């Protein structure tokens, strides 16, 4: 039964751990292709850039000009595998069958909403977020019936508090863990005023995908949205990585929304994460391979 009362931190932790059915696998490192979007309008060239930066796994963005089969051929040609895909909420609502068919064609079973329905960005009350969580629960049931997993990726605005809990808490507590996992964007959590460490610990067992992103010190990298390469900003990765592992992390997905040099940035972030390989997973022998 979904809990619609005000969630305490301890309740969140117990509920996520006891009910989550998200499987754990050996941990990989991938790149969110949004980080490379300004390099070219050609998906083939973006795929080549991911390989140049040392990646074997990618998280897809919307590819309006390619069929699933065309996308899979490009990925295969570059030795890339899809670990997950960002799929807009409207795409799932308006063309669920077509969206699922595309993802199945590229070999992906992990669909992540990059944000909420458009009207939710202005939602400033617990009931709206609770209701949206219930909607996603039903959508997650449909995804499971197709052999897919549904997840939610946060920005900073979900860290706002309403009626004693954050918007992200109301959303996640209004859906069953098996129907909706959380892909925490660690930098946006911190930017929103929450503790990434505490929030990830609250959802132990519910976070198979982690967005690895860093914040620059205040006043720095303003031309890059205040972001930094992973390991070169203000987040405490030596504390965060074990917490993410305990939260069920199967894949750390490097992202930088506006890097000066996209290939160099995501390459540098990958190398940092690989230097912390012992913190990523108990079973990771090769951090960049998707098993």
Characterization of this structure:
- The chain has 291 residues and is of the alpha/beta class.
- The protein is built from twelve helices and twelve strands.
- It has an eight-stranded parallel sheet.
- Helix 2 links the parallel strand 1 and strand 2.
- Helix 9 packs parallel to helix 10.
- The C terminus is likely disordered.
Major sheet, described briefly?
8 strands, parallel
What portion of residues is helical? Answer: 25-40%
* Apparent shape: globular
The largest beta-sheet arranges its strands as 8-5-4-3-2-1-12-9
Report the order of strands and helices. HEHEHEHHEHEEEHEHHEEEHEHH
* Overall pLDDT: 90
Structural class comes to: alpha/beta
Q: Which terms summarize this structure?
A:
two-stranded antiparallel ribbon; disordered C terminus; alpha/beta; 291 residues; 12 strands; globular; eight-stranded parallel sheet; 12 helices
Topology (elements, then pairings):
Blueprint: H1 9-19, E1 28-32, H2 43-52, E2 57-60, H3 68-77, E3 81-86, H4 89-94, H5 96-106, E4 110-113, H6 126-145, E5 149-153, E6 161-162, E7 165-166, H7 167-173, E8 181-183, H8 186-191, H9 196-202, E9 209-212, E10 214-215, E11 227-228, H10 237-246, E12 251-254, H11 262-275, H12 277-280
Parallel strand pairs: 1-2, 1-12, 2-3, 3-4, 4-5, 5-8, 9-12
Antiparallel strand pairs: 6-7, 10-11
């Amino acid at each position: 039964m979904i809990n619609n009362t005000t969630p305490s931190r301890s309740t969140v932790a117990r509920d996520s751990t006891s009910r989550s059915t998200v499987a754990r696998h050996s941990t990989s490192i991938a790149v969110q292709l949004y980080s490379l979007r300004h390099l070219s309008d050609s998906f083939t060239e973006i795929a080549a850039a991911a390989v140049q930066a040392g990646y074997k796994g990618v998280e897809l963005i919307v590819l309006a000009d390619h069929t699933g089969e065309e996308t899979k051929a490009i990925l295969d040609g570059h030795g890339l595998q899809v670990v997950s895909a960002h799929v807009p909420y409207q795409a799932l609502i308006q063309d669920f069958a077509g969206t699922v068919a595309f993802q199945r064609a590229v070999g992906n079973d992990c669909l992540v909403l990059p944000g909420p329905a458009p009207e939710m960005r202005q939602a400033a009350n617990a009931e709206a977020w609770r209701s949206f969580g219930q909607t996603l629960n039903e959508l997650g049931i449909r995804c499971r019936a197709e052999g897919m997993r549904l997840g939610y990726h946060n920005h900073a605005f979900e860290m706002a508090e309403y009626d004693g809990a954050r918007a992200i808490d109301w959303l996640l507590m209004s859906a069953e863990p098996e129907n909706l996992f959380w892909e925490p964007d660690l930098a946006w959590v911190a930017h929103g005023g929450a503790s990434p460490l505490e929030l990830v610990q609250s959802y132990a067992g519910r976070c198979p995908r982690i967005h690895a992103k860093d914040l620059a010190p205040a006043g720095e990298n303003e031309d890059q949205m205040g972001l930094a390469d992973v390991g070169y900003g203000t987040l405490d990765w030596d504390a965060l990585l074990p917490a993410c592992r305990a939260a069920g992390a199967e894949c750390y997905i490097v992202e930088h929304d506006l890097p000066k040099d996209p290939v160099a940035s995501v390459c540098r972030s990958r190398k940092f994460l690989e230097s912390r390989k012992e913190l990523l997973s108990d079973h990771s022998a090769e951090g960049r391979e998707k098993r």
